[in-house]
């Protein structure tokens, strides 16, 4: 089957022929229609997680999927052939940039009835990240204040909407050109990062969601109220992450050292820092689907491109400037190759 993969870390994405997926007893075989591209894909290509999540080559990239069920394992009970589904596979079984992928049924949900396949393909990773940061970890609620960095990005556009749905006052950083969009999504205040310094403005936030890391994360600790929490999705990883993933002792020590500075600073300020590496969850996606169909969350897709454009589209993520998600679609390419319409 057709797929985009790398043959070694830091190598270009190549279009190659891959074997058909092996479908386990609890797996759902999905004919891929749309794939949302993420910064995570580029980080994996660069080998940033090689010691934590070692992969074999050739490695098919892709962490978001929306498509149609074409087969199910013998123990699958929640999905049937013909269902429209979406999800984020387990990191060790990623590979959605392919014609088909086998995914554990526990990592899938039915596509919301109110959106397209391309929109569904944009959602899983960013929506689950927002949910786990704000609901599972942050326990954000009515009357609280949250600062969401990079509000116009894939995670930011969903996190703003979810935070507003939860009843929080939402402040975000972004370019001034995105102010109108972000206000329409629910942001109460949009800070233009080019002309304003968020750390010098009134803060007292209960929660900060940081997707930038580095100095931006450390400065974010200063705007939290005492007892507040900064959740970082760009790192550095913390000891809790190492324990949860059962990493070897030496690697746990190295990871603890990476985050020592930011954790010490957080303690001095009377706040907390947590690293979030999003986990797959069909159950959470099903709850997100309900919010989408209720109108509380809408996907924000900046560009939809054909499957052929995947390498250039992935490379463009490092240049920035795209509002929302970039999505590549496969149905048109599949139809062109077979000469038949695609159901």
Characterize the structure shown.
- Residues 10-328 form the Enoyl reductase (ER) domain.
- With 343 residues, this protein is of the alpha/beta class.
- It folds into two domains: 2-123 and 299-338, Quinone Oxidoreductase, Chain A, domain 1 (Alpha-Beta Complex); 125-275, NAD(P)-binding Rossmann-like Domain (Rossmann fold).
- Helices cover 31% and strands 25% of the residues.
- It has eleven helices and 16 strands.
- It has helices spanning 39-45, 117-122, 124-137, 154-165, 179-185, 214-220, 239-244, 249-269, 282-293, 310-316, 331-338; strands at residues 2-6, 14-17, 27-37, 59-60, 65-72, 84-87, 100-104, 108-110, 145-148, 169-174, 189-192, 205-210, 224-232, 272-275, 301-306, 325-329.
- α10 (310-316) links the parallel β15 (301-306) and β16 (325-329).
- α3 packs across α4.
- The longest helix is centred in the last third of the chain and has 21 residues, at 249-269.
- It is globular, with a radius of gyration of 20 Å.
Short description, anyone?
The chain is α/β, with parallel strands linked by helices and 343 residues long. It has helices at residues 39-45, 117-122, 124-137, 154-165, 179-185, 214-220, 239-244, 249-269, 282-293, 310-316, 331-338, and strands at 2-6, 14-17, 27-37, 59-60, 65-72, 84-87, 100-104, 108-110, 145-148, 169-174, 189-192, 205-210, 224-232, 272-275, 301-306, 325-329. It folds into 2 domains: 2-123 and 299-338, Quinone Oxidoreductase, Chain A, domain 1, CATH 3.90.180.10; 125-275, Rossmann fold, CATH 3.40.50.720.
């Amino acid at each position: 089957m057709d797929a985009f993969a790398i043959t070694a870390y830091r190598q270009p994405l190549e279009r190659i022929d891959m074997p058909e997926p092996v479908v386990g007893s609890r797996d759902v075989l999905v004919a891929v229609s749309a794939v949302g591209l993420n910064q995570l894909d580029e980080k994996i290509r660069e080998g940033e997680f090689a010691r934590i999540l070692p992969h074999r080559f050739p490695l098919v990239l892709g962490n978001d999927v929306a498509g149609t069920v074409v087969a199910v394992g013998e123990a699958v009970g929640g999905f049937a052939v013909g269902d429209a589904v979406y999800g984020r596979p387990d990191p060790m079984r990623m590979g959605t940039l392919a014609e088909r992928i086998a995914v554990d049924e526990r990592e899938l949900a039915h596509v919301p009835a109110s959106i397209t396949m391309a929109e569904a393909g944009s959602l899983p990773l960013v929506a689950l990240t927002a949910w786990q940061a704000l609901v599972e970890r942050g326990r954000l609620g009515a009357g609280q204040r949250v600062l969401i960095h990079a509000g116009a990005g894939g995670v930011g556009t969903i996190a703003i909407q979810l935070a507003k749905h939860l009843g929080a006052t939402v402040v975000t950083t972004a370019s001034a050109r995105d102010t109108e969009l972000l206000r329409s999504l629910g942001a109460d205040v949009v800070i233009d990062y080019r002309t304003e310094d968020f750390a010098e403005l009134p803060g007292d936030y209960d929660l900060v969601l940081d997707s930038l890391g580095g100095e931006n994360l450390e400065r974010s600790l200063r705007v939290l109220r005492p007892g507040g929490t900064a959740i970082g999705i760009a790192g550095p990883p913390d000891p809790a992450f190492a324990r949860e993933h059962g990493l070897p002792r030496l690697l746990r020590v190295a990871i603890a050292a990476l985050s020592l500075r930011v954790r010490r600073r957080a303690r001095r300020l009377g706040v907390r820092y947590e690293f979030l590496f999003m986990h797959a969850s069909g159950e959470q996606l099903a709850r997100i689907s309900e919010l989408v169909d209720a109108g509380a969350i809408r996907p924000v897709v900046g560009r939809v491109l054909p499957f052929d454009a995947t390498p250039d589209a992935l490379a463009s993520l490092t240049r920035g400037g795209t509002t929302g998600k970039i999505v590549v679609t496969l149905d048109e390419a599949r139809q062109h190759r077979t000469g038949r319409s695609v159901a």
